[in-house]
Amino acid sequence: MSHSYQDVEPEFQYHKGETHDIIEFQVKDFRKDQLRVHFSSKGVLTVSGERPHEGGKKIRFRKDINPPKDCEPNEIHAKLRSGVLFITIPKKDAPQPPQQDSLKQVQQQDNGKLKQGGSSSEEAKGAMATPNENAAMPKTESKSFISGLEMEKKTAIKVVANVAVVSLVFVVLFYVYKIYAPVASKETSYEDFEPLCKWRRDQNCDKLEVHLQGFKRQQLKVQIHSSGILEISGERLMEEGKSKRIISRFRKEFPVSEDYQRTQIHAKFYNGILHLVMPKQIPTISAAGDENNDGKASSSGTSCLTCLMKNKNMALEIMILAISLAIVGAYVKKYCQCSLQ
Questions:
Q1: What pTM did the predictor assign?
Q2: Which stretches make up the SHSP domain (predicted)?
């Protein structure tokens, strides 16, 4: 399929500087992927572009420019912004040629002489740009330098990564505030009650049943103090409003005689009933053995029975915060590596 082309001559400006030169091409309606910048082995910088037009036509242009001899070919880069293609040509550290110095002096004249010197400046630009304007571009020896156009993509990735990290941190802080701020500001009232307790006596052990309907295992606590007191306590949330929360709680104490094996006392909770099993001491023939057993029972110290967790919700909140912080760290590490590449 044949295409008809319309050749155009885009406006461009060549700005000379001490460390680098900048060429500005007016390429309105051209996209980044429709432009091409090449620097051949013969030292010719070729700028070309091609885009579709109405009626199946295509608009194209091509411009050959001779950059200064002291330029750095491998450092040339381009950037498209607001319909203007900026091509930066860095220079080496060597001093500028006399021709560039004279051109710079003409450009630095006052306003009264600026128009007179402008014609010579344009002639110098035209002399530099026109010799190879219609020359054919070598296809096998050309080398593309469009790395500057890729800088916009990297910058966009960095911006997206920063916005995502800030948003995730904000969500985590909002979640923490939502959980802990209402708890700190609400008024808490307690309702004490007396649970039903039943003893079941046996020859080898005694069993205590405490009826605690509505309680969970994590809300109960069982302790045996060194003074020989068995303490059972618990708290649970009954009602929570916008400004007030009501907590139901209880506390029971039972004396534990020396006839029980305190270190073997254990508890189980199921079907809303707390079952405490209290094994009794096994009588022995030797009196010395009895004295040793009594000594061991009396020196058992503080309770070793803490088999019930106190707060399940607190553990769940800590787990959620830890997972959120881990996601933030992984996200920052991933996009920092992308930006460095």
A1: 0.33
A2: 3-109, 187-298
Domain assignment present for 286: yes
Rounded distance between C-alpha atoms, residue 279 and residue 16, angstroms: 98
The span from the CA of 224 to the CA of 305, in Å, is: 7
The predicted-structure confidence for 275-309, as pLDDT tens digits, reads as follows 999 998 887 655 444 545 554 444 444 444 444 45
What's the CA gap between 61 and 176, in Å, rounded? Answer: 60
Taking alpha carbons only, the member of 123, 1, 8, 120 closest to residue 63 is 8
Q: 130-177, pLDDT tens digit by residue?
A: 444 444 344 434 444 455 556 677 788 888 888 999 988 988 888 777
Tokens representing 190? 């307690």
Nearest to 41 by CA among 127, 140, 132, 148: 140
Q: Using an 8 Å Cβ cutoff, are 57 and 6 in contact?
A: yes
Phi, psi of 227 (to 5 degrees): -80, 0
Q: Is residue 102 located within the same domain as residue 247? A: no
